[in-house]
Specification:
By secondary structure, this protein is an alpha+beta fold. It has 9 helices and 4 strands; from the N terminus they run βαβαββααααααα. The longest helix is centred in the middle third of the chain and has 25 residues. The protein is globular and about 50 Å long.
Amino acid sequence: MKLFDYFRSSAAYRVRIVLNLKGIAYEHAGINLLKGEDGADDYRAINPQGLVPSLQDGSHSLFQSLAICEYLEEIHPTPTLLPGTALERARIRALAQMVACDIHPVNNLRILKYLTSELGVTEEQKLTWYRHWISEGFNALESLLASSTETGQYCHGDTVTLADVCLVPQVYNARRFNLDLTPFSTIERIEQQCLKHTAFERAQPDNQPDAV
């Protein structure tokens, strides 16, 4: 497998975690978003959206991080990231999507670039935007996690699930943009539990070949 990746992409970070958790070897191919390599014709031929990550498995190219994660879950079902009953799996997916579908899309690099370059937003206004949307999402996520008996050491029970895979990269981003995490004690506790795993540690942005 070959992963087209940018070290600070939280979507790519999710896929790295899953590959590591499942012990799947892969080749790293760096796509530098700051240099515009995502817009190159050869990469657009692989992923017409020009987003990372993309995963090549033989002659097949996959894109969209959650779709890639579920593909890896299906072809390498152990250890499972979607355990339990249909209701439990629905909760796990919902928690994952709160991050991947609600928080992340309004804060990714192309949105931030558009705010500053096209709309003339100042750096401080951009940071205010960024922190606002993480806080909005984390407020709801913290409430759900803290109040549910289904929350254990991790987002769901006492094993890593897809929800944790999505949560940890978003917490990394929150810290990078200096968001005060004091109100989110459950989220922080789960993140720290996850980071005890070698798979999460190896996937961290600073540990990637293209880290600068």
